[in-house]
Design brief:
The chain is of the alpha+beta class and 513 residues long. It folds into three domains: 1-167, no CATH class; 186-321, no CATH class; 335-510, Structural Genomics Hypothetical 15.5 Kd Protein In mrcA-pckA Intergenic Region, Chain A, CATH 3.10.290.30. It is built from 15 helices and twelve strands. It has helices at residues 61-73, 80-89, 107-118, 120-126, 136-146, 152-169, 203-221, 234-243, 258-270, 274-293, 299-318, 369-379, 471-479, 487-493, 504-512; strands at residues 3-6, 29-37, 40-47, 53-56, 96-99, 342-350, 358-364, 388-392, 397-399, 424-429, 435-446, 455-460. A hairpin with a 7-residue loop joins strand 6 and strand 7. It is globular. It starts with a strand and ends with a helix.
Length: 513
């Protein structure tokens, strides 16, 4: 039953008041309040579980249905099947209004209302509320969709919760194919009893699954029919070993819709467009076809994933005006001699770990990009036992030697002076554990004396632990009391590593050698 809670401001307007009752189910509980937009009264509704906002001009069930249906149809981060199931939820004849004076003071609602009120002018530029030629419903759909874009953090949090809730409520499980026995990797049925269970407390099983996932990835990438895609191969490992294993033990067969959600999130966050997006989509379609060939899913399942991803691709291209300008890599000058003697001040940060681990350091423009890569990894305590590459995703450039990309730039021939101030880079280390470091060129300036070696200025946190399983395993290690840590993990480490420790003097001594 759909329930909308309201506060004191609407007591005179809403007469059909019902007693408060416990609500279960997705999108069933909302909070409403009025909001003034350039002298006109609107109703702002915010869904409790996800923070999803709606903007209406009245509280009648028909307008609610029409607007929510239009908004859901724009949810390209879920599959068309899931969109239709979600719309079915709202096919009710009545809304129950419940008075709750505290509802409009809840932080989740108040933050969205404050955000909208404080950004009205920007909001109006994103919408067509004043356009008399556009239908009322269409204007409200556009306006509702524009609200989360006013703040990246709020929007990202909302979409992440939406994806999680929809995929848990409306999963699209794969059908079982005829598995072809192989010595290369094991059948996922081996861990079937753990599917959907919490990752915490199942460290040994998670480790086994991740190891098997890497074998599946490796076998997939070895196929002769695959083109040398420009997308980094670590994305498949990231999808299988981190995205699907964030909190629960899930497999690529658990929910075929997860591929759509993952690609949408990555595209928005990393700005994968043009040929890069096409390759991204293509490699996932081929991966699911591979799963069908080895019998982990059926051909029908693989075709469904392909259909969903083609739909996502078309919709992403519709909504994006960014066009890649292809570079002729052979013609690129890999240094700027006028900046070779300048000092580069750079900030590097480990992705997806809390509290944030970061380093502020300086390096000469005359240093090679390979030296920059090595500096970042060294100051985060990497052991250099795995491959690594540096990406400038906006310019579609990769610095590194890789069998998956014939157009990589040689980091030994490129210099730091190649980069300009405010350039954002991504360093990926170990395509199994998939450590990712955001690297930003913050300042470029002339020094009184040439810089002989890199030097750390400031930072926080120890760094990474090689082969622990990646950032999510590192986070679990950090959050778990020593008394509850897996004994096998402690035995492997030798001693507990203090991830809050940051020895700047020792690291700088190493950089000076």
């Amino acid at each position: 039953m759909l329930q909308i809670q309201y506060g004191r401001s609407l007591t005179k307007e809403i007469k059909d008041n019902k007693p408060k009752s416990k609500i279960n189910g997705l999108f069933q509980l909302w909070t409403v309040d009025t909001i003034d937009i350039k002298g006109k009264k609107y109703y702002l509704l915010v869904e409790k579980a996800t923070g999803m906002p709606l903007l209406l001009t009245n509280l009648e069930i028909k307008q609610f249905h029409d607007v929510i249906q239009g908004v859901v149809k724009d949810f390209i981060f879920i599959t068309p099947t899931q969109q239709n199931k979600l719309i079915e939820i709202f096919k009710t004849d009545k809304i129950n209004f419940v008075y709750n004076n505290r509802s409009t003071n809840v932080k989740a609602f108040k933050s969205i209302k404050d955000m909208l009120e404080n950004n009205i002018n920007v909001f109006l530029q994103l919408t067509d509320l004043a356009d008399s030629k556009t239908s009322q419903v269409k204007k409200l759909v556009t306006a509702s969709a524009a609200i989360p874009t006013l703040n990246f953090e709020v929007g990202n949090n909302m979409f992440t919760k939406l994806i999680l809730n929809v995929n848990e409520t409306f999963p699209i499980p794969a059908s079982r194919g005829h598995f072809i026995a192989t010595t290369e990797f094991e059948d996922l049925l081996k861990w079937k009893q753990y599917e959907g269970k919490a990752k915490r407390g199942n460290a040994k099983i998670v480790k086994e699954v991740r190891k098997n996932n890497l074998k599946i990835c490796w076998n997939f990438m070895q196929q002769d029919k695959l083109d040398p895609y420009t997308i980094e191969p670590g994305l498949l490992a990231d999808f299988l070993n981190y995205y699907l294993l964030q909190k629960k033990i899930l497999f690529p067969t658990s929910n075929l819709a997860e591929a759509t959600s993952y690609i949408w999130l990555k595209t928005v966050k990393e700005q994968y467009y043009g040929d890069l997006l096409t390759d991204f989509i293509k490699i996932f379609i081929e991966f699911y076809r591979f799963l069908a060939e080895v019998g982990l899913i059926t051909e029908k399942d693989a075709n469904l994933v392909a259909e969903n991803l083609h739909y996502l691709h078309v919709e992403l291209q519709k909504n994006n005006n960014y066009i890649f300008k292809e570079n002729s890599l052979a013609e690129l000058k890999l240094e700027n001699k006028s900046r070779n003697n300048m000092t580069y001040e750079i900030k590097a940060q480990l992705r997806d770990f809390k509290p944030v681990m970061w380093r502020q350091f300086i390096i000469s423009g005359n240093s090679t990009v390979a030296e920059l890569e090595q500096t970042v990894l060294y100051i985060f305590n990497a052991e250099f036992g795995h491959m690594y590459d540096l990406y400038n995703l906006k310019c579609h450039q990769r610095f590194g030697i890789s069998t998956f990309d014939d157009e990589s730039l040689d980091p030994e021939k490129a210099k730091v002076s190649f980069f300009t101030q405010n350039t954002n880079l991504l360093l990926v280390y170990d395509y199994g554990d998939n450590w990712q470091f955001d690297v930003k060129i913050e300042k470029v300036y002339q020094s009184k004396q040439p810089l002989l070696h890199p030097q750390i200025i400031a930072g926080k946190g120890y760094g990474i632990i090689d082969d622990i399983g990646g950032v999510y395993e590192l986070q679990e290690y950090y959050d778990t009391p020593k008394s509850k840590l897996d004994p096998d993990l402690l035995d492997w480490l030798g001693e507990r590593i203090d991830l809050d420790k940051f020895d700047i003097d020792n690291l700088n001594m190493g950089l000076a050698k």
